[in-house]
């Protein structure tokens, strides 16, 4: 009898140890998603010849085409379950509008001004997840959001922009600011919707997302922009990499939201985005960092470590509590 009990406990310990590596799975996937999305931002800045809507259209075509084989292999309805179809449509519209406006903002603003607004989305995502998904918003999570946003403000040197009297609000600048603000609002809606339909297969979600966003972006670009053929040479390679990185980043984001709450996922993604933007600023754009960038990157890096530690602490205490209950019984 004792032998069976010891075997049962060893099996439970084996199962618990097998589950431990997945504790950080959602946060790691969110960080990887941020890495690939940051690479997409670099490519968008390099493709100055093309309209932002056309670049977004290339992105969504790549997501749609790349997700098609996996969707066929899964064998499920490519349009998703009926009870979630309206959520999938709204997710596609919000996500497509978010990327379209995101690229417009980067096209009309400097990268520091665009990121200072766009990367503030974790604050609004956390609030939206609390309202619509009833997700808890702990004090530690709120601190992580504050650290991330503060790091973003320092890295993008927002205080110096606000006090600069030489800033001229041209038509392009106002358009970029409005696009960035609306992009944040759309992102705050798209991420909780992804979390809402987390039971839908990842391939189906990505395929349907690509279908809706492709049709929407084609319509928006036909109205607000003009289609141009890309230049020969490096631009063709950029477009291919844009599609590949977009698909991987989107897939990682969906998988992250299927196993982790929307607030921590959006915070880690924004933190990795801005941290890598700091790196690309040095390596690719050859801009020397100043004290603002150093302080900002330190705060952003601290927020990632803080979220990871808090996740480990909560999961560890959960295992301890369950073990104590079993011991008492």
TrEMBL record:
Identify the SUPFAM superfamilies for this entry. Answer: Multidrug resistance efflux transporter EmrE
**Classification via Gene3D superfamilies:** 1.10.3730.20
UniProt membrane topology term: Multi-pass membrane protein
Tell me the keywords, alphabetical order: Membrane, Transmembrane, Transmembrane helix
Subcellular localization is given as: Membrane
- CC annotations in GO: membrane
- EamA domain residues are 25-155
What is the superkingdom listed in this entry's lineage? Eukaryota
The protein's matches in InterPro entries, at most eight in alphabetical order, are given as: EamA_dom, EmrE-like
What parts of the sequence cross the membrane?
23-44, 56-76, 88-108, 114-132, 139-156, 176-194, 206-224, 236-256, 291-309
Instruction: Report whether Zinc shows up as a keyword of the record.
Output: no
What is an example of a Pfam family matching this protein?
EamA
Could you tell me what this protein is called? EamA domain-containing protein
Q: Which organism is it from?
A: Larinioides sclopetarius
Q: What is the lineage of its organism?
A: Eukaryota, Metazoa, Ecdysozoa, Arthropoda, Chelicerata
């Amino acid at each position: 009898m004792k032998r069976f009990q010891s075997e049962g406990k060893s099996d439970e310990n084996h199962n618990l140890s097998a589950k431990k590596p997945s504790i950080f799975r959602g946060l790691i996937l969110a960080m990887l998603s941020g890495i690939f999305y940051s690479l997409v931002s670099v490519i968008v800045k390099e493709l100055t010849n093309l309209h932002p809507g056309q670049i977004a259209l290339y992105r969504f075509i790549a997501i749609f085409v790349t997700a098609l084989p996996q969707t066929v292999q899964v064998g499920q309805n490519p349009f998703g379950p009926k009870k979630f179809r309206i959520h999938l449509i709204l997710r596609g519209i919000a996500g497509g509008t978010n990327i379209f406006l995101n690229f417009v903002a980067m096209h009309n603003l400097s990268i520091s001004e665009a990121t200072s607004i766009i990367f503030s989305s974790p604050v609004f995502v956390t609030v939206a997840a609390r309202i619509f998904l009833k997700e808890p918003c702990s004090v530690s999570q709120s601190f992580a959001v504050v650290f991330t946003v503060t790091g973003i403000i320092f890295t993008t040197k927002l205080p110096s922009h606000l006090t600069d009297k030489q800033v001229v609000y041209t038509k392009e600048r106002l358009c970029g600011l409005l696009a960035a603000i609306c992009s944040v609002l759309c992102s705050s809606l798209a991420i909780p919707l992804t979390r809402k339909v987390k039971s839908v297969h990842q391939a189906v979600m990505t395929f349907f997302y690509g279908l809706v966003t492709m049709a929407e972006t084609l319509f928006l670009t036909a109205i607000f922009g003009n289609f141009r053929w890309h230049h020969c040479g490096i631009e063709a390679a950029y477009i291919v990499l844009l599609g590949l990185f977009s698909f991987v980043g989107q897939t990682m984001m969906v998988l992250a939201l299927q196993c982790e709450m929307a607030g921590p996922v959006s915070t880690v993604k924004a933190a990795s985005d801005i941290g890598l933007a700091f790196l690309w600023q040095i390596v690719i754009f050859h801009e020397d960092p100043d004290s603002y960038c150093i302080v900002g990157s330190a705060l952003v890096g601290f927020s990632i470590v803080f979220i990871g530690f808090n996740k480990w602490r909560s999961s560890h205490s959960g295992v301890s509590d369950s073990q104590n209950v079993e011991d008492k019984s």
